[in-house]
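Q: Got a minute? One more chain.
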Amino acid sequence: MHPFESHIRNVHNFPKEGIIFKDITPLLQERFSEVVKAMSEGIEWNEIDYVVGIESRGFILGAAMAQLHGKGFMPMRKKGKLPPPVIAESYTLEYGTDTLEMIREEKQSRIVLVDDVLATGGTLTAAMNLCIKNKLEVKAMALLINLTFLNKFKEQGLPIYSVLNY
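A: Always. Here it is, folded:
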């Protein structure tokens, strides 16, 4: 058992019946700097221009990773949260549908995509598609938790760095 696991709270039937939500709040309260360092391992930081964090817990983790490695941070938000010009990508997740948006980029950049949990892969696939539309080359994906029993996620052979795998 990874030492971080004892700080993750399982919340049954949230956000809907049958889902077990992995609450990372206690982990972030107790071991935040260790989590950020662990999520950063293995990434070739000299190949990264920016960190892109997926709303909302990806913001927390991604911004801290960007700070740690002296990189810029770009938010990927839910629909209607960013001012124009934006580009969008809609997707299906395990309990509904949603849309991600980013401010339109004018220059090609290399990024690491950050989120807290990979469940079915819908959000991460949409995020990848949105980055491609936005001239962002995804060099790696960093996740705190990969629920491998829910997904067989392999996006274009890119490295996925996950600290905890279930």
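A: The chain is about 25% helix and 40% strand.
Q: Perfect, thanks.
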